[in-house]
Amino acid sequence: MKSTARTLHLAFATLVPMLLGLSWGLVVALLLGSRRKGLNHMTTLLAWLAPRLAGTPVSQVGQRFSIDQPAIYIFNHQSGLDPIVLCAAIGGDVVAIGKRKWKHHPVIGPLLWFGETVFVDESVSDQNSNRSAERFRTIYKPAIDILKQGRSIAIAPEGTRNSDGVIGEFRLGAFRIAQLAQVPIVPVVIYHAGERLKARSTRLRPGPIEYEILEPVYPEAFATSIDVTAATIRTRYIHKLTGEKAQTLAGQTGYRSS
Fold first, then answer.
1. Contacts within 8 Å (CB) and 24+ apart, 66-71
2. SS3 call for 249
3. Has this prediction a pTM greater than 0.85?
4. 224: Cβ–Cβ under 8 A, 6 or more apart, which residues?
5. pLDDT of residue 42
6. What is the C-alpha radius of gyration for the chain, rounded to an integer number of angstroms?
7. How confident is the model at residue 107 (pLDDT cuts 50, 70, 90)?
8. pLDDT at 162 over 70
């Protein structure tokens, strides 16, 4: 009975904000003649309403670094709640890069379409050198065009949600785009969203979620090696999620570090 209630709570806390957010975004876009402004209004509504309905208040910890230019925001992908956390953390003028399988989803698909999401074919990977031309045409060029418009990109370098909380290996796409577009990488660390809604689970457990925006990594760092830069940033995530911050959260909210 309890698990059923949690599942119904999740459905309510996700469907209502998505439908209201999309509707409000479309209305604003039509009234102002700007899809970009409509998207920003939708993002603001999602960031405000979804945590309240879910019982998962989102707050920032640590120092917030000022970014006065488009950037690529990367994050540790723990949960289906991560997009809501990013709405709160980044705000407007951001476009996501996501899996193509979500493009035709009956609920999420229209939201991603309105958000101008860049959809990625998972078979076009960084390791497949035979698909480099297709990768540039379908992923890199659309992302670079968005950055040139003054908007930012959000992407999970792990590529998928991680059910055990361990940081997976980073794919290099985000770092290649940053190098090509000459924009900074901004790491966003999300704490204990996986405890609120585990990967591929439908049971929502209310409780606080926090995020931390780390110091940006500027293109000069990519001059030596993208692989080294990605590995260095991944190490920062591991330290954050297994260090003092995670231990503090473990005592306060039940967050389990890996």
1. 67/184, 67/186, 67/216, 69/183, 69/184, 70/146, 70/147, 70/150, 70/151, 70/152, 70/153, 70/181, 70/183, 71/152, 71/153, 71/183, 71/184, 71/185, 71/186, 71/216
2. helix
3. yes
4. none
5. 96
6. 18
7. confident
8. no
Picking from 169, 122, 120, 168, the residue whose alpha carbon sits closest to that of residue 143 is 120
Exposed/middle/buried for residue 241 (C-beta within 10 Å: 0-12, 13-18, 19+): buried
Neighbours of 49 (CB within 10 A): 18
E strands, 30-170, in order: 58-60, 72-75, 94-99, 118-120, 152-155
Neighbours of 93 (CB within 10 A): 16
Q: What tokens does 37 get?
A: 């402004």
Task: Determine the residue type at 208.
Answer: P
Beta strands in the chain (DSSP E): 58-60, 72-75, 94-99, 118-120, 152-155, 185-191, 209-213
Model confidence at 54: pLDDT above 70:
yes
* Residue 55 main-chain phi, psi, to 5 deg: 75, 30
Phi, psi of 226 (to 5 degrees): -65, -40
